[in-house]
Amino acid sequence: MELHVYPVSVQQVTDVPTRIVETHRGQGWQALSIVVTYDRREVLPSYAAFEWAPEGRWADAATGDAASWQGYRLHEAVVRDKLTQPDKCQVPSEQAYEVPPVCRRVGYLAPVGSG
């Protein structure tokens, strides 16, 4: 899920997976893994990754009750610096996401400036 806001509060980021969980309630999912990014082109989650699973543990997904989600909770699995230390981070520019022409021809992606 993309959240095109920077800087962003912890509450804003937590609201995203909470809404996603509610839209999937009752559909029989054993667990949900939710990645919140600033932009989908980022390789790592730029804000955080959450897990909705029994007691918040993804490893226990197979033991959970997918119908009722009883005992499930949301767990912050990964929290990145853009969320915890926004004053020390900068949002990447549009140029940072450009794919070099040589990579488009070959069919793979490489970091900007490497092609």
Describe it for me?
The protein has 115 residues and is an alpha+beta fold. Strands 1-2-3 form a 3-stranded antiparallel beta sheet. It contains 3 helices and 3 strands.
Features:
disordered C terminus, elongated, single chain, 115 residues, alpha+beta
SSE string:
HEEEHH
What does the radius of gyration come to? 17 Å
User: Please, what is the average pLDDT?
Assistant: 85
Instruction: Tally the helices.
Output: 3
Alpha-beta content class = alpha+beta
- Please give the order of strands in the largest beta sheet: 1-2-3
Share of residues in strands: 15-25%
Number of strand segments? 3
**Main sheet properties:** 3 strands, antiparallel
Q: Helical content, roughly? A: 10-25%
Give the overall shape.
elongated
Low-confidence regions: 108-115
Please report the distance between the alpha carbons of the first and last residues.
29 Å
Task: Reconstruct the topology from this structure.
Layout: H1 10-24, E1 32-36, E2 48-54, E3 72-79, H2 81-84, H3 101-106
Antiparallel strand pairs: 1-2, 2-3
Summarize the structure.
The protein is of the alpha+beta class. The chain has helices at 10-24, 81-84, 101-106; strands at 32-36, 48-54, 72-79.
